[in-house]
Amino acid sequence: FGLLGYDPGFLNTASCKSSITFIDGDRGILRYRGYPIEQLAEHSTFLETAYLLIKGELPDQERLAQWTYNIRHHTMTHSNLVKFMDGFRYDAHPMGILVGTVGALSTFYPDAKDIGNVDSRKLQIRRLIGKIPTLAAMSFRHSMGFPYVQPDNDLSFSGNFLSMMFRMTELRYTPNPVLERALDVLFILHADHEQNCSTNAVRAVGSSGVDPYTAVAAGCAALYGPKHGGANEAVIRMLMEIGSVDRVPEFIKSVKAGSGRLMGFGHRVYKNYDPRAKIIKKIAFEVFEETGRSPLLDIALELEKIALEDDYFISRKLYPNVDFYSGLIYQAMGFPMDMFPVLFAIGRIPGWLSQWSEHVRDTDQKIARPRQIYLGEGERDWVAVDSRP
Ligand code: CMC
What GO biological process terms are annotated to this protein in UniProt (predicted)? Predict the structure, then answer.
């Protein structure tokens, strides 16, 4: 096979050079453009973090105001896109709707094909960040049979999303400030994570020179898979299956015996506490203070406590990851489980776009085209159908 390297899942292959996100999995460090995730979660907003990821620096006040205005300017959708949305089956999965409608945006904005034009790239980035919460909320309301809610651009990014999700009357929706901030921080925590499956999909598809809507639809498609966007739902299902705190030791024992995995534990890169999980755990308590405590939280706390003291988990460096508490928070906020990957996609959009933009500008890059190790038949002759064994 000559000099071909064999690396399934690209565990040991760097597909790009990047200046966006730094992860040190052994020390539990995550930084966007050099800024520790803990500081961004405490002080920043999602839109400011999106600016940082895409442009490389934090904005001053004037730039932030202009950026916020620009994103708000793009929250509406074309009325034909609403018709397209209406065409999905009544019980369509919101993530399936998102994959389709984000891809469809490329047909509404043919100017996006001009990826060599820096002004066009900037415009498509603003459009996508502005529109994704609208499409996400519409996908939920379609799947519930509720009428769509127009964006309320006087609200914050996350407040407007909550309004488009949950507004039920003509009266203006006022988001609970604790839940609004918690959601904004959750979006910050999901905003980028270097070359994860969906980002790799965006880069690989984008390397063909396709427009960013189509490349981002590929990212959404990757996130639809249960191994990527579905882990927090799996955590909720696991906690429901355990059912009560006193059954936790028995469940841990069965995991150690090989019955299955402790969902929300372990990570390909983090061999230490996932820094996002620490922040999310704190948010969970703040949110439950407002919404009332879910009995599943007590099961999760007990699971974490026992697992962190158990040799099986210690020796394999298995710690809670970002998904361990995030589903519990989303559930407390009123999101159904099939919206969890959609929420992930809203958070990840600035990461996908900054990575796409970096990829397009990288003169080292080529169309993604890995090789393979062929294990099939050697050459053989075609045989007529009536002579085949
Ligand atoms: N529960 C029990 N045992 C586990 C777990 C777990 N959650 N994760 C790994 N192990 C064991 C595994 O059985 C193996 O044991 P042994 O050496 O005896 O065979 C050892 O730990 C190493 O496992 P691995 O599969 O080689 O580890 P990996 O780095 O390839 O897997 C993972 C990472 C996230 C796929 C895995 O930890 C897992 O399946 N976790 C549960 C699912 C989950 O929470 N996924 C969300 C990940 S974070 C999402 C994100 O950042 O976007």
Answer: monocarboxylic acid metabolic process; tricarboxylic acid cycle
